[in-house]
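hey so u asked for the seq, here:
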Amino acid sequence: MELANIVWDFVTNNGYLNFENFGLFGLFVSAFICGMILPLSSELVLFSLVGFGYRVFPCIAVAYFGSLGGCLLNYFLGYLGKWEWVERYLRIKRERIESQQHRLEKFGIYLASFSWVPILGPLFPLALGFFRVNKWGTLLFLVIGQICRYAVAAYICIRFIK
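ran it, structure tokens below
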């Protein structure tokens, strides 16, 4: 029962997500979830932790790896996807998607650098995985996008919070 209370406290506190109470672990989980499909803001948790006195660069590193992990999970979930699922659940015809596939194969890896964009961003690695776009190129641009995202967050932390 003790573990259930800890998990419940982690997920909700009077209806609000309260990741900052769990320190760097909470930051990692919020960044991981943010890297996936749920629209959370790991930056707010990052700013809260820095405001509470945590050092900036360990927080940035934890958030970076959490977000990158969420994006990679999205990529591999897309990789496991099947055409039948898209046609059945999304009601999109295969021909319509295949007509855009050449663009995604040509420019798709660049979309990975925008995986941090709220709401639409997590769909990019999912689609890249579904179409089996080059995994190493996708990884490279995921890393570049996340580094840029957290470099800006680090600047904000150093300039305005600390």
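The chain has a mean pLDDT of 79. Residues 86 and 92 are 6 Å apart (CA to CA).
lmk if thats what u needed
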